[in-house]
Amino acid sequence: MENKQKLGFATRQIHVGKIKDASGALCTPIYQTSTFEFETVQQGGARFAGEEPGYIYSRLSNPSLTQAEEKLASLENGEAALAAASGMGAISAALWTSVVAGDEILASDTLYGCTFSLLCHGMTKFGVDTKFIDMVNLENFQKHLTPKTKVIYFETPCNPTLKILDIKAIAETVHKYNPSIRVIVDNTFCSPYLQRPLELGADVVVHSATKYINGHGDVIAGFIVGTAEFIGQCRTFGLKDMTGAVLSPFDAFLIARGLKTLDIRMERHCSNARKVAEFLYSHPAVDKVYYPGLPDFKGYEVARKQMKDFGGMLSIELKAGRDEVANALNSLRLCTIAVSLGDAETLVEHAASMTHSTYTPEELAAAGISEGLVRISVGLEDPDDIIADLKSVLDTLVS
Ligand code: 4LM
Protein backbone atom coordinates (compact mmCIF):
# COMPACT_ATOMS: atom_id res chain seq x y z
CA MET A 1 0.00 0.00 0.00
CA GLU A 2 1.38 3.42 -0.97
CA ASN A 3 1.78 6.41 1.36
CA LYS A 4 1.27 4.21 4.43
CA GLN A 5 2.05 6.93 6.97
CA LYS A 6 -0.29 9.42 5.34
CA LEU A 7 -3.33 7.26 6.07
CA GLY A 8 -4.88 7.35 9.53
CA PHE A 9 -4.20 4.75 12.25
CA ALA A 10 -7.58 3.03 11.86
CA THR A 11 -7.18 2.76 8.11
CA ARG A 12 -3.68 1.34 8.39
CA GLN A 13 -4.60 -1.24 11.04
CA ILE A 14 -7.13 -2.62 8.55
CA HIS A 15 -5.48 -2.20 5.14
CA VAL A 16 -1.68 -2.26 5.45
CA GLY A 17 -0.06 -5.52 4.44
CA LYS A 18 -3.10 -6.97 2.73
CA ILE A 19 -2.12 -9.41 -0.02
CA LYS A 20 -4.45 -9.53 -3.01
CA ASP A 21 -4.57 -12.94 -4.68
CA ALA A 22 -6.25 -14.17 -7.87
CA SER A 23 -9.42 -15.22 -6.01
CA GLY A 24 -10.09 -11.66 -4.82
CA ALA A 25 -10.39 -12.83 -1.19
CA LEU A 26 -11.09 -9.87 1.11
CA CYS A 27 -8.91 -11.34 3.87
CA THR A 28 -5.35 -12.40 3.15
CA PRO A 29 -5.39 -16.22 2.99
CA ILE A 30 -3.43 -18.33 5.49
CA TYR A 31 -0.20 -19.47 3.82
CA GLN A 32 0.00 -22.77 5.68
CA THR A 33 3.32 -23.90 4.25
CA SER A 34 6.70 -24.67 5.76
CA THR A 35 8.74 -24.22 2.58
CA PHE A 36 8.57 -22.46 -0.82
CA GLU A 37 9.24 -23.90 -4.26
CA PHE A 38 12.16 -22.50 -6.28
CA GLU A 39 11.91 -22.35 -10.10
CA THR A 40 15.52 -23.51 -10.38
CA VAL A 41 18.48 -24.51 -8.22
CA GLN A 42 20.10 -21.20 -9.19
CA GLN A 43 17.08 -19.28 -7.97
CA GLY A 44 17.20 -21.07 -4.60
CA GLY A 45 20.88 -20.25 -4.28
CA ALA A 46 20.28 -16.60 -5.19
CA ARG A 47 17.57 -16.30 -2.53
CA PHE A 48 19.82 -17.81 0.14
CA ALA A 49 22.58 -15.41 -0.91
CA GLY A 50 20.18 -12.48 -0.59
CA GLU A 51 20.68 -11.64 -4.26
CA GLU A 52 17.02 -12.15 -5.15
CA PRO A 53 13.95 -11.32 -3.05
CA GLY A 54 11.40 -14.04 -2.33
CA TYR A 55 10.37 -16.58 0.25
CA ILE A 56 12.62 -19.55 1.19
CA TYR A 57 11.39 -21.30 4.32
CA SER A 58 8.84 -20.24 6.94
CA ARG A 59 11.39 -19.96 9.76
CA LEU A 60 12.67 -16.93 7.82
CA SER A 61 9.45 -15.46 6.50
CA ASN A 62 6.00 -16.34 5.20
CA PRO A 63 3.35 -14.13 3.50
CA SER A 64 0.90 -14.52 6.42
CA LEU A 65 3.58 -13.21 8.76
CA THR A 66 4.63 -10.48 6.34
CA GLN A 67 1.10 -9.09 6.44
CA ALA A 68 1.11 -8.84 10.23
CA GLU A 69 4.68 -7.47 10.28
CA GLU A 70 3.84 -4.70 7.82
CA LYS A 71 0.85 -3.69 9.93
CA LEU A 72 2.93 -3.53 13.13
CA ALA A 73 5.76 -1.58 11.46
CA SER A 74 3.27 0.94 10.11
CA LEU A 75 1.35 1.32 13.40
CA GLU A 76 4.54 1.75 15.48
CA ASN A 77 5.96 4.08 12.82
CA GLY A 78 9.05 1.88 12.36
CA GLU A 79 10.85 0.86 9.18
CA ALA A 80 10.25 -2.87 9.66
CA ALA A 81 8.90 -5.50 12.05
CA LEU A 82 9.53 -9.16 12.81
CA ALA A 83 6.89 -11.55 14.15
CA ALA A 84 7.81 -14.14 16.79
CA ALA A 85 6.07 -17.07 18.45
CA SER A 86 5.70 -15.21 21.76
CA GLY A 87 6.58 -11.98 23.48
CA MET A 88 9.49 -13.81 25.12
CA GLY A 89 10.56 -15.05 21.67
CA ALA A 90 10.64 -11.46 20.41
CA ILE A 91 12.47 -10.12 23.47
CA SER A 92 15.12 -12.85 23.44
CA ALA A 93 15.70 -12.53 19.67
CA ALA A 94 16.13 -8.74 20.03
CA LEU A 95 18.52 -9.12 22.98
CA TRP A 96 20.61 -11.94 21.50
CA THR A 97 20.99 -9.85 18.34
CA SER A 98 22.22 -6.88 20.40
CA VAL A 99 24.82 -8.28 22.81
CA VAL A 100 27.83 -10.59 23.11
CA ALA A 101 29.61 -11.99 26.16
CA GLY A 102 31.17 -9.17 28.17
CA ASP A 103 28.49 -6.62 27.28
CA GLU A 104 26.23 -4.97 29.83
CA ILE A 105 22.50 -4.24 29.83
CA LEU A 106 20.79 -1.64 31.99
CA ALA A 107 17.23 -2.77 32.69
CA SER A 108 14.36 -1.26 34.61
CA ASP A 109 13.98 -2.61 38.14
CA THR A 110 10.32 -3.49 37.48
CA LEU A 111 9.69 -5.91 34.61
CA TYR A 112 7.40 -8.78 33.64
CA GLY A 113 8.61 -11.84 35.62
CA CYS A 114 9.95 -13.91 32.71
CA THR A 115 11.78 -10.92 31.18
CA PHE A 116 13.39 -10.38 34.58
CA SER A 117 14.33 -14.06 34.69
CA LEU A 118 15.78 -14.02 31.14
CA LEU A 119 18.01 -11.07 32.06
CA CYS A 120 18.83 -12.05 35.63
CA HIS A 121 19.17 -15.83 35.37
CA GLY A 122 19.44 -16.59 31.63
CA MET A 123 21.75 -14.12 29.92
CA THR A 124 24.19 -14.02 32.86
CA LYS A 125 24.98 -17.69 32.08
CA PHE A 126 26.41 -16.50 28.76
CA GLY A 127 28.49 -13.64 30.13
CA VAL A 128 26.00 -10.80 29.63
CA ASP A 129 25.55 -8.80 32.81
CA THR A 130 22.38 -6.83 33.63
CA LYS A 131 22.03 -4.09 36.22
CA PHE A 132 18.47 -3.35 37.34
CA ILE A 133 17.97 0.33 38.10
CA ASP A 134 15.16 2.75 38.91
CA MET A 135 14.81 4.58 35.58
CA VAL A 136 12.55 7.29 37.00
CA ASN A 137 15.72 8.77 38.47
CA LEU A 138 17.79 9.77 35.43
CA GLU A 139 20.89 10.22 37.60
CA ASN A 140 21.03 6.44 37.84
CA PHE A 141 22.09 6.42 34.17
CA GLN A 142 25.07 8.68 34.93
CA LYS A 143 26.04 6.22 37.68
CA HIS A 144 25.65 2.98 35.73
CA LEU A 145 26.33 3.66 32.02
CA THR A 146 29.74 2.27 31.05
CA PRO A 147 31.60 1.72 27.76
CA LYS A 148 30.32 -1.88 27.96
CA THR A 149 26.63 -0.86 28.04
CA LYS A 150 24.96 -1.99 24.80
CA VAL A 151 21.24 -2.07 25.65
CA ILE A 152 18.77 -0.13 27.79
CA TYR A 153 15.65 -2.20 28.38
CA PHE A 154 12.37 -1.15 29.97
CA GLU A 155 8.58 -1.36 29.96
CA THR A 156 6.29 1.61 30.48
CA PRO A 157 3.84 1.33 32.15
CA CYS A 158 5.80 -1.34 34.06
CA ASN A 159 4.21 -4.70 34.80
CA PRO A 160 2.62 -4.92 37.41
CA THR A 161 3.03 -1.59 39.29
CA LEU A 162 2.18 0.65 36.30
CA LYS A 163 5.28 2.72 37.10
CA ILE A 164 5.72 5.25 34.29
CA LEU A 165 9.12 5.86 32.69
CA ASP A 166 9.83 8.91 30.53
CA ILE A 167 10.80 7.42 27.15
CA LYS A 168 12.01 10.69 25.60
CA ALA A 169 14.09 11.71 28.62
CA ILE A 170 15.68 8.26 28.93
CA ALA A 171 16.49 8.02 25.20
CA GLU A 172 18.04 11.52 25.24
CA THR A 173 20.12 10.82 28.35
CA VAL A 174 21.41 7.50 27.01
CA HIS A 175 22.08 8.66 23.46
CA LYS A 176 23.91 11.73 24.75
CA TYR A 177 26.29 9.35 26.53
CA ASN A 178 26.61 7.04 23.51
CA PRO A 179 24.30 7.23 20.45
CA SER A 180 24.95 3.60 19.55
CA ILE A 181 23.42 2.17 22.76
CA ARG A 182 20.18 0.46 21.78
CA VAL A 183 17.14 1.68 23.73
CA ILE A 184 14.56 -1.13 23.67
CA VAL A 185 11.04 -0.45 24.97
CA ASP A 186 8.45 -3.13 25.69
CA ASN A 187 5.21 -1.43 24.57
CA THR A 188 2.91 -4.34 25.50
CA PHE A 189 0.79 -2.46 28.07
CA CYS A 190 -0.03 0.35 25.62
CA SER A 191 -0.05 -1.00 22.07
CA PRO A 192 0.92 1.49 19.36
CA TYR A 193 -2.52 3.07 19.61
CA LEU A 194 -1.68 4.61 23.00
CA GLN A 195 2.09 5.07 22.79
CA ARG A 196 4.76 4.99 20.08
CA PRO A 197 8.24 4.80 21.65
CA LEU A 198 10.12 5.12 18.32
CA GLU A 199 8.61 8.59 17.85
CA LEU A 200 9.97 9.51 21.29
CA GLY A 201 13.57 8.48 20.54
CA ALA A 202 13.67 4.75 21.35
CA ASP A 203 15.51 2.52 18.86
CA VAL A 204 13.48 -0.69 19.14
CA VAL A 205 10.00 -1.68 20.30
CA VAL A 206 9.10 -5.18 21.45
CA HIS A 207 5.64 -6.55 22.08
CA SER A 208 3.88 -9.45 23.61
CA ALA A 209 1.23 -9.53 20.86
CA THR A 210 -0.53 -12.14 22.99
CA LYS A 211 -2.09 -9.14 24.73
CA TYR A 212 -3.78 -6.04 23.21
CA ILE A 213 -2.35 -6.51 19.70
CA ASN A 214 -4.30 -9.74 19.27
CA GLY A 215 -6.83 -8.84 21.93
CA HIS A 216 -8.92 -11.98 21.99
CA GLY A 217 -7.03 -14.31 24.33
CA ASP A 218 -6.46 -17.02 21.75
CA VAL A 219 -2.89 -16.49 20.48
CA ILE A 220 0.65 -16.40 21.89
CA ALA A 221 2.79 -14.06 19.74
CA GLY A 222 5.39 -11.30 19.78
CA PHE A 223 6.94 -8.59 17.58
CA ILE A 224 10.12 -6.57 17.26
CA VAL A 225 9.92 -3.21 15.46
CA GLY A 226 12.89 -1.06 14.46
CA THR A 227 15.14 -0.11 11.57
CA ALA A 228 15.12 -2.36 8.52
CA GLU A 229 18.79 -3.14 9.23
CA PHE A 230 18.20 -4.27 12.84
CA ILE A 231 15.06 -6.24 11.97
CA GLY A 232 17.04 -7.97 9.20
CA GLN A 233 19.68 -8.98 11.77
CA CYS A 234 17.00 -10.21 14.18
CA ARG A 235 15.40 -12.22 11.37
CA THR A 236 18.53 -13.88 10.01
CA PHE A 237 20.31 -14.39 13.35
CA GLY A 238 18.29 -13.70 16.51
CA LEU A 239 15.22 -15.59 15.37
CA LYS A 240 16.50 -17.92 12.62
CA ASP A 241 19.55 -19.21 14.50
CA MET A 242 19.22 -18.34 18.19
CA THR A 243 15.60 -18.82 19.26
CA GLY A 244 13.80 -20.43 16.31
CA ALA A 245 10.65 -18.99 17.90
CA VAL A 246 8.65 -18.54 14.69
CA LEU A 247 4.98 -17.54 14.65
CA SER A 248 2.63 -19.94 12.84
CA PRO A 249 0.76 -18.69 9.73
CA PHE A 250 -2.59 -19.33 11.43
CA ASP A 251 -1.62 -17.25 14.47
CA ALA A 252 -0.36 -14.49 12.14
CA PHE A 253 -3.79 -14.51 10.48
CA LEU A 254 -5.47 -14.13 13.88
CA ILE A 255 -3.14 -11.24 14.75
CA ALA A 256 -4.00 -9.47 11.47
CA ARG A 257 -7.68 -10.01 12.24
CA GLY A 258 -7.38 -8.74 15.82
CA LEU A 259 -5.47 -5.65 14.69
CA LYS A 260 -8.37 -4.47 12.55
CA THR A 261 -10.19 -3.33 15.73
CA LEU A 262 -7.21 -2.27 17.87
CA ASP A 263 -8.18 1.40 18.20
CA ILE A 264 -11.80 0.84 19.23
CA ARG A 265 -10.82 -1.95 21.63
CA MET A 266 -8.17 0.27 23.27
CA GLU A 267 -10.62 3.15 23.66
CA ARG A 268 -13.10 0.87 25.44
CA HIS A 269 -10.35 -0.70 27.62
CA CYS A 270 -9.27 2.82 28.64
CA SER A 271 -12.76 4.12 29.44
CA ASN A 272 -13.66 0.95 31.38
CA ALA A 273 -10.38 1.07 33.34
CA ARG A 274 -10.96 4.73 34.25
CA LYS A 275 -14.38 3.86 35.71
CA VAL A 276 -13.05 0.81 37.56
CA ALA A 277 -10.08 2.82 38.94
CA GLU A 278 -12.38 5.57 40.21
CA PHE A 279 -14.60 2.99 41.90
CA LEU A 280 -11.63 1.23 43.53
CA TYR A 281 -10.09 4.52 44.65
CA SER A 282 -13.16 5.31 46.70
CA HIS A 283 -13.75 1.82 48.13
CA PRO A 284 -12.89 1.49 51.85
CA ALA A 285 -11.34 -1.99 51.45
CA VAL A 286 -8.72 -0.65 49.05
CA ASP A 287 -5.46 0.70 50.42
CA LYS A 288 -3.77 1.78 47.18
CA VAL A 289 -4.64 2.03 43.49
CA TYR A 290 -1.90 1.88 40.87
CA TYR A 291 -3.38 3.53 37.77
CA PRO A 292 -1.56 6.18 35.74
CA GLY A 293 -4.77 8.14 35.11
CA LEU A 294 -5.20 9.18 38.75
CA PRO A 295 -3.85 12.74 39.18
CA ASP A 296 -2.06 11.77 42.43
CA PHE A 297 -0.30 8.78 40.80
CA LYS A 298 3.44 9.44 40.63
CA GLY A 299 3.78 9.07 36.85
CA TYR A 300 0.57 10.90 35.94
CA GLU A 301 2.20 13.92 34.24
CA VAL A 302 4.64 11.82 32.17
CA ALA A 303 1.83 9.40 31.24
CA ARG A 304 -0.30 12.32 30.07
CA LYS A 305 2.57 13.54 27.93
CA GLN A 306 3.58 10.29 26.25
CA MET A 307 0.37 8.21 26.18
CA LYS A 308 -2.83 8.99 24.25
CA ASP A 309 -4.87 7.63 27.19
CA PHE A 310 -4.05 5.79 30.41
CA GLY A 311 -4.56 2.19 29.30
CA GLY A 312 -6.62 -0.75 30.51
CA MET A 313 -4.35 -2.01 33.30
CA LEU A 314 -4.43 -1.25 37.01
CA SER A 315 -3.31 -2.82 40.26
CA ILE A 316 -4.51 -2.54 43.83
CA GLU A 317 -3.39 -3.26 47.33
CA LEU A 318 -6.09 -4.18 49.81
CA LYS A 319 -6.15 -3.48 53.52
CA ALA A 320 -6.97 -7.12 54.38
CA GLY A 321 -4.30 -9.82 54.75
CA ARG A 322 -3.12 -11.95 51.84
CA ASP A 323 -5.15 -15.11 52.66
CA GLU A 324 -8.32 -13.14 53.33
CA VAL A 325 -7.91 -11.32 50.01
CA ALA A 326 -7.27 -14.57 48.12
CA ASN A 327 -10.37 -16.21 49.58
CA ALA A 328 -12.49 -13.17 48.76
CA LEU A 329 -11.25 -13.07 45.15
CA ASN A 330 -12.28 -16.72 44.75
CA SER A 331 -15.88 -15.48 44.88
CA LEU A 332 -15.56 -13.32 41.74
CA ARG A 333 -18.24 -14.39 39.27
CA LEU A 334 -17.63 -12.31 36.15
CA CYS A 335 -13.96 -11.34 36.41
CA THR A 336 -11.69 -14.30 35.71
CA ILE A 337 -8.74 -15.31 37.87
CA ALA A 338 -6.02 -15.66 35.23
CA VAL A 339 -2.68 -14.25 34.14
CA SER A 340 -2.24 -12.47 30.80
CA LEU A 341 -3.89 -9.20 29.86
CA GLY A 342 -5.45 -7.18 27.08
CA ASP A 343 -8.27 -9.62 26.42
CA ALA A 344 -12.02 -8.98 26.09
CA GLU A 345 -12.47 -10.67 29.49
CA THR A 346 -11.48 -8.89 32.71
CA LEU A 347 -8.56 -10.85 34.20
CA VAL A 348 -7.46 -10.70 37.83
CA GLU A 349 -4.17 -12.10 39.13
CA HIS A 350 -1.88 -12.04 42.17
CA ALA A 351 1.50 -10.86 40.85
CA ALA A 352 3.81 -12.16 43.63
CA SER A 353 2.59 -15.76 43.31
CA MET A 354 1.89 -15.74 39.55
CA THR A 355 3.42 -13.44 36.87
CA HIS A 356 6.22 -12.26 39.16
CA SER A 357 6.93 -15.51 41.02
CA THR A 358 10.36 -15.51 39.29
CA TYR A 359 11.37 -12.74 41.75
CA THR A 360 12.58 -13.61 45.25
CA PRO A 361 10.84 -11.74 48.11
CA GLU A 362 13.88 -9.41 48.29
CA GLU A 363 13.76 -8.79 44.54
CA LEU A 364 10.03 -8.08 44.72
CA ALA A 365 10.67 -5.51 47.44
CA ALA A 366 13.45 -3.89 45.38
CA ALA A 367 11.08 -3.70 42.40
CA GLY A 368 8.36 -2.07 44.51
CA ILE A 369 6.00 -5.03 44.01
CA SER A 370 4.14 -5.60 47.27
CA GLU A 371 3.27 -9.15 48.34
CA GLY A 372 -0.43 -8.23 48.32
CA LEU A 373 -0.58 -6.56 44.90
CA VAL A 374 -3.56 -7.68 42.80
CA ARG A 375 -3.44 -6.81 39.10
CA ILE A 376 -6.55 -6.25 37.01
CA SER A 377 -6.64 -6.25 33.22
CA VAL A 378 -9.91 -4.43 32.64
CA GLY A 379 -11.83 -6.08 29.82
CA LEU A 380 -14.47 -4.97 27.37
CA GLU A 381 -17.56 -6.01 29.34
CA ASP A 382 -20.12 -3.44 30.51
CA PRO A 383 -18.23 -1.41 33.12
CA ASP A 384 -21.14 -1.50 35.55
CA ASP A 385 -21.01 -5.29 35.55
CA ILE A 386 -17.24 -5.36 36.19
CA ILE A 387 -17.66 -2.89 39.05
CA ALA A 388 -20.61 -4.80 40.54
CA ASP A 389 -18.56 -8.02 40.56
CA LEU A 390 -15.56 -6.34 42.23
CA LYS A 391 -17.86 -4.55 44.71
CA SER A 392 -19.52 -7.81 45.77
CA VAL A 393 -16.09 -9.13 46.78
CA LEU A 394 -14.60 -5.95 48.26
CA ASP A 395 -17.66 -5.28 50.41
CA THR A 396 -17.00 -8.55 52.25
CA LEU A 397 -13.57 -7.21 53.25
CA VAL A 398 -14.90 -4.13 55.02
CA SER A 399 -15.26 -4.85 58.71
C1 4LM B 1 1.32 -11.38 32.20
N1 4LM B 1 2.91 -11.13 30.44
O1 4LM B 1 1.79 -10.33 32.67
P1 4LM B 1 4.44 -13.79 26.03
N2 4LM B 1 6.28 -8.37 28.02
C2 4LM B 1 5.32 -8.03 28.91
C3 4LM B 1 4.44 -9.01 29.39
O2 4LM B 1 3.51 -8.64 30.27
C4 4LM B 1 4.58 -10.35 28.95
C5 4LM B 1 5.59 -10.65 28.04
C6 4LM B 1 6.42 -9.64 27.58
C7 4LM B 1 2.05 -12.00 31.08
C8 4LM B 1 1.94 -13.30 30.74
C9 4LM B 1 1.42 -14.39 31.57
C10 4LM B 1 5.22 -6.61 29.37
C11 4LM B 1 3.70 -11.38 29.45
C12 4LM B 1 5.79 -12.05 27.51
O3 4LM B 1 3.65 -14.37 27.13
O4 4LM B 1 5.72 -14.54 25.80
O5 4LM B 1 3.67 -13.54 24.76
O6 4LM B 1 4.87 -12.29 26.50
O7 4LM B 1 0.27 -11.87 32.63
Describe the protein's topology.
Blueprint: H1 9-15, H2 41-48, H3 63-76, E1 80-84, H4 87-98, E2 104-108, H5 113-122, E3 129-133, H6 139-144, E4 149-155, H7 167-177, E5 182-186, H8 191-194, E6 204-208, E7 222-226, H9 228-243, H10 249-259, H11 262-281, E8 286-290, H12 300-306, E9 313-318, H13 322-329, E10 336-337, E11 347-350, H14 361-366, E12 374-377, H15 383-394
Parallel strand pairs: 2-3, 2-4, 4-5, 5-6, 10-11
Antiparallel strand pairs: 1-7, 6-7, 8-9, 9-12, 11-12
Helix pairs in contact: 1-3, 3-10, 4-9
The site of ligand 4LM has 18 residues, from helix 4 and helix 5.
Task: Report a brief summary of the structure.
The protein is α/β, with parallel strands linked by helices and 399 residues long.
Explain the overall architecture:
With 399 residues, the protein is an alpha/beta fold. Helices cover 38% and strands 15% of the residues. It has 2 domains: 14-259, Aspartate Aminotransferase, domain 2; 262-397, Aspartate Aminotransferase, domain 1, CATH 3.90.1150.10. It has helices at 9-15, 41-48, 63-76, 87-98, 113-122, 139-144, 167-177, 191-194, 228-243, 249-259, 262-281, 300-306, 322-329, 361-366, 383-394; strands at 80-84, 104-108, 129-133, 149-155, 182-186, 204-208, 222-226, 286-290, 313-318, 336-337, 347-350, 374-377. The strands form 2 sheets. The chain has a 7-stranded mixed sheet with strand order 1-7-6-5-4-2-3, with helices on both faces. A 5-stranded mixed sheet has the order 8-9-12-11-10, with helices on one face. The chain is globular, with a radius of gyration of 21 Å. Ligand 4LM binds next to helix 4 and helix 5. The site of ligand 4LM has 18 residues, from helix 4 and helix 5.
